[in-house]
Amino acid sequence: MDHVETNGARIPAIGLGTWELRGRACARVVNQALRLGYRHIDTAEMYDNEREIGEGLRESGIKREEVFVTTKVWQTHLAPPQFERSTKESLVRMRLSDVNLLLIHWPSSQIPLAETIGALCKMKKEGYARHIGISNFTVPLVEEAVKYATEPLVTNQIEWHPYLDQSKVVGACREHGMAVTAYSPIARGKAAGDKVLSTIGMAYGKTAGQVSLRYLVQEGAIVIPRTSRVERLSENMEIFDFALADEEMEEIRKLARPSGRVVDWAGAPRWD
């Protein structure tokens, strides 16, 4: 398992995304993923599965200290009192004393960012989170967040896959020593059937999805693909035994297009 080191954090380069995983199925997938070697689990208050994340972690038998757990505070809870309460409620649901990484899930135009960043930093100082970061932040918001932060921000979790050029925000993050975590790294399944990715993968005995993940890892990203299938859990992990050539990386970059974003909604910021 490769790791990304950033602003004092050491984060496994691949994790299990758990959006839309619910109930016993969620706990079972988390358990299986950890038994297969995953050491990074990503959840959020909004996913409504934190209780099952905790159950899966305990059922796996893997020591808590070996697993990097990320959760996020939802957009409507970004005022400091609500932020603190939401963080503590997440820990209660997971039955954890702290999380490895706490993120602001989506920025909000309704709450001053300085207040939210202050609450985020407070959660780290008080020991509820070992590391902190942001999610779905644009270049201007990254700059603003860094300006207000009194503790290191270790990552910006954003949508990133071959169809979406995120070079501007990735560059902004790297200027501040922050890693980038890629959610929807297979573009919600679209990359799995891509002809270019499939052709490249044939030379390595890999699938198009694996090529998509490998591309992002070589770009320096942390990837958190979501799946509920055991065979896909194993497949997604098998991306560290090959490397894409420079010309193949460039070919994949050319897949990006203006309409490539797959996650967008009314509460999103104005994208870069």
Task: Point out poorly predicted stretches.
Answer: none
Rg for CA atoms: 18 Å
According to DSSP, the number of beta strands is 10
N-to-C span: 32 Å
CATH superfamily: NADP-dependent oxidoreductase domain
Strand-helix topology:
Layout: E1 3-6, E2 9-12, E3 16-17, H1 23-36, E4 40-42, H2 50-60, E5 68-73, H3 80-94, E6 99-104, H4 113-125, E7 129-135, H5 139-148, E8 153-159, H6 167-175, E9 179-183, H7 195-202, H8 208-218, E10 222-223, H9 230-237, H10 246-253
Parallel strand pairs: 3-4, 4-5, 5-6, 6-7, 7-8, 8-9, 9-10
Antiparallel strand pairs: 1-2
Helix pairs in contact: 1-2, 2-3, 3-4, 7-8
Overview of the molecule:
- By secondary structure, the protein is α/β, with parallel strands linked by helices.
- The protein has one domain: NADP-dependent oxidoreductase domain (TIM Barrel, Alpha-Beta Barrel).
- It has 10 helices and 10 strands.
- It has helices at 23-36, 50-60, 80-94, 113-125, 139-148, 167-175, 195-202, 208-218, 230-237, 246-253; strands at 3-6, 9-12, 16-17, 40-42, 68-73, 99-104, 129-135, 153-159, 179-183, 222-223.
- Strands 3-4-5-6-7-8-9-10 form an 8-stranded parallel beta sheet, with helices on one face.
- The chain is globular, with a radius of gyration of 18 Å.
- The relative contact order is 0.14.
